[in-house]
Specification:
mainly alpha
């Protein structure tokens, strides 16, 4: 095993350290996401409605895992669009 600098290839140890660091980063990010979803599940339906989501949306996001945030944002946007359409229809 040789130390390399500049444009030379990274050593095996350096690559291993980077791989472990990335794995730990993903694990920490996944844990934060699980805790945030768990907090959402403890909220009342009225509070979730204020956020534009439902308990069902949160449960579906839990199942989606990697794309949980995208799932919740999409459901929130769909509800906002539907509410706006109702307001426009009522005003006409």
């Amino acid at each position: 095993m040789t130390l390399t600098f500049g444009t030379e290839p990274l050593s095996v140890v350096t690559r291993l350290i980077r791989a472990v660091a990335e794995m730990l980063g993903r694990a920490a990010r996944d844990r934060r996401q699980r805790l945030a979803l768990a907090d959402l599940l403890t909220m009342s339906p009225a509070r979730l409605d204020d956020l534009g989501i439902t308990h069902q949306d949160v449960l579906e996001a839990v199942r989606a895992r990697r794309s949980a945030g995208q799932h919740l944002a999409r459901r929130q946007a769909e509800r906002a669009d539907a509410a706006l359409a109702r307001c426009v229809a009522c005003a006409s």
